[in-house]
Amino acid sequence: MAHTSNYLNDEEVARAMNQCVDTLKDGIGSVTLEQLKYIGGGDVLAPELLELTPNYVERKIPTEFLEKCLLNADGSTKPGSKRVIVTGMGGCGKTQLVRKFIENHGDLFVSVFFIDGSSKETIKRDFTEHVRALGGALSQKSFEESMRFLSLPVQGGERLLVMDNVDDPKVNISAFLPKWKRGAVIITSRNGSHGQLNPSGHLQLDVMSPDESTELLIRGSGSTQLSGSHREAAAKVAEELGNLPIALVQAASHIFRTGCSDTTYVSLLKTSRERVLSDPATNQIDMRYTTAFAAFDASYSILPSKAQLMLHLLSFFHRQKLPVDCIGFDANNGFSYQEEYLDRGEEYERGREFLKEIFYSHGKWDPAEVESIIGSLRAHSLITVISTETTRLLQMHSLVHEWARLRVPSDEVVHFQDAAIRLLCCNAQESNYAMMQYLQLHVQALSYIWETMHVNDMESFGFILKESGDYSGCLRLRERLRSVLSDRLGVDHHFTIVTSVNLAATYRQLGRYAEAEVMFIEVVKQRTKLLGFNHLDTINASANLADIYRRLGRYAEAEALEVEVLKQRTRLLGVNHPDTLRASASLAATYIQLGRYVEAEVLDAQVLKWRTQMLGVDHLETIFASAGLAATYTQLGRHAEAEVLKVEVLNQRTKLLGVDHPDTIQATANLAVTYSQLSRHAEVERLQTDVLQRRTRLFGDRHPNTLLAMWSLASTYKAMKRHSEALELARKAHLGYGETLGDSHPYSQQVAALLASLTAEKPVNLG
Questions:
Q1: Number of alpha carbons in the 13 Å side-chain half-sphere of residue 619
Q2: What is the pLDDT of the chain when averaged over all its residues?
């Protein structure tokens, strides 16, 4: 015992014992008896660098970012302490990017420490083993001693420390950073919040470029075919996989292993997507994850439960442009807003309760809860947030979107589906027009259930599509809705008539004026019979019919009805009621067609004044009034005043509705008219070409608005002496008007006159 006591009291032995205890406490490697007896008695190997994939493709922009942060222009290391934080979703290539940097520039550093940052334990272990591997007196250093050692200056250079995959939010990364005055640290993580450690050195790594992705597929699949068609096929695979590196490696591995073509692989993605995307890569060494889905699963496992639910909910929407503000729009009312035609089933309450489960805190709506959830998803690079002038938009990578949907248990799908429907329907309100340009995508994403959804939700979805300018989608819903209500309630029921009005309005927006006229005439008859001539609903029906008469070129009939509607609304509602102002604006539009411009100006100016006072300058109704007055100024030859108003209308509609909304396109066409009057032909051509392309894409080449765009551009070509182009468009417009509106329509006759003048002209020979 005395001998043992003396041995343990020996200073050198006691120090070795303490280091052993520290090592065991920190969970760092193992200690042999020889190491207890002799300081430096055993060799300690430093953790090895992960291998660089043999098919690595240089990523130009991210590589240049790393080099700019750490190196001088001459290739030497920058002075001082340097930090670069590389963040991005799992599988986007963070580790490989850094590994390539080490391969290219590792010799500039005295030593390179590559640390597994996945937990506190692995960080401590790797730090300590790297220091001990330097040998000599360092071979028995504890973690704390290793950290102090790393903070010391290095003779003849500096060290590079790489902390890889620091994803766990519970790890305080700052506590593990050396306190050196010269040296470089690179951190990789899915946690975007680590970028706060050095915002100017924060690289948010996205997916590969299309060219880089194609190159990776070609190299990885072992292909020797480098023809243009082969590259095109590889590019299609890359596009289908969203250019995500880990998914591209999977694809290359599958193609190499099976010998299938790129075209076959795309077909497999369409028919057996989940199975193919779960097929691990076998052609790489040291991959942390062998599939994209495994990388996503790792991120999912450390998310808070509400963030997990939110991620699954997002997968039922379109993967892009979901407004954050749509979550809270009706939240204070318990997500209860709906159009009420028929009684609800259990899906309504089920959707409401599920949204509350995700977004409520302690039984109440709490905006901070939403921000916390978004923060968690963003921190793990599972979503991105795009800021616009009016809102923030949530977006997901296509594969994350699919994975999140596939991970929903089959018995829970209906809950997320009901919640998604409820959230969209809550936003289908007139006061929420700024959101409509974004919600259309998400309504379309649920088109597979349109036929079976509740009629109340059909109307809400139809409203969103109508407001966003998707009239074809709106038509599909409203035809189905009217059919259901006609069968359930009868054709003369108030709700059925309301759906008839909405359906007729959709026909009007699609340029199907004859069908709209038939329905509006029937509605006038029904409402006159059921409600009487002076009921507001009957008056509204007459106003709709008058609008159709004007579009059909029957201006006298339109005027007669509109004068009567204005009188009745003024008497029943007052001069400044919104419906009375709409009647004034409609009559002004008819006066313009009749050439009564002074009378139109009086009405338009009055409407704009009232709407500005009641609604403000940025309300859609006020903007519509500005457009009406601008059109009148054009007819009166007051082009400078017209231009000011039209430019403002275009800017406002672009902001509130988006560039592809029919009303924004109309504003562009209106501005082109004024530029034409000012002989600014180059600008006119640019705007009118844009209008024609957008209308053709939205409506086809037989919609009256598309035909008007053809006619307008033909007139511009004529003014620019481009005879053949003018003649071609004029012929198309003349044929289209004859088929859709008839040869007697005023527009048909005016286009016929243009065509006749072009036919009579001889082409100008510029040679």
A1: 15
A2: 89
